[in-house]
Design goal:
The chain contains eight helices and seven strands. With 245 residues, it is of the alpha/beta class. It has a single domain, classed as Glycerol-3-phosphate (1)-acyltransferase (3-Layer(aba) Sandwich).
Amino acid sequence: MALIRSILYMLVLVITVIPYTLAVLLARAFGGGPQGSYIPARAWLALAADVARPLLGIKRHVTGLENLPTDPAQGVVLLVKHQSAYETFMMPAILPRRVAYVFKRELLHIPFFGWSMACMDMIHIDRGHPTRAFVRVIKQGRRLLSEGIWVVMFPEGTRTPRGSVGKYMVSGARLAIAAGVPVVPVAVTSGRVWPKSGFTKRPGVVEVSIGAPIASTGRKAEELMHEVQAWIEAEMRRLDPDAYQ
């Protein structure tokens, strides 16, 4: 049954991404710019996250939204635990501001989904050239943050299996320091319902915990990222203790 539900869910994503991508392309073609393109793209991402509840039995429980800045001019760098594609869909849906992801350039090659990503003002990087990628993150990230757009990064760089800890890279902390904005750590337990390996998803609750902003002013990147990692990993153990036994 779980396999059938997972197949049905994937079919819904494949079918719905086509008209939403057309809306993104039309918005960009007729002068909507990145903001106009973002509206239908966010709608599809929200659909992908929300339809997981009736089709897969995956619910979410979000805490800490009150920790997010309310000043529309305040940029933040959100550093998010990454265990599955679910949080990629979910973050724009639950956040009150326009967000920009830092993502690998290869995603632009995915039909429809990648075309939508290319239309929006986000930060795509070439992992094969880390120095060039870092410069792009800092330069484009500072501009987006100065416009009040929130930048979402996965500090471990890729999805990690449930109960594991990847290497936390300091690029997110360096961006926050360079832009003079705080970082917001986010713990997400999606791995217990959406495994990294395997196609089949399981019913359950994804716990999402948004931490208080951590100031970056006067901090060293390694020290700041160590604080972020300590908070996220402690919160992961609190939210999903069975995974760390």
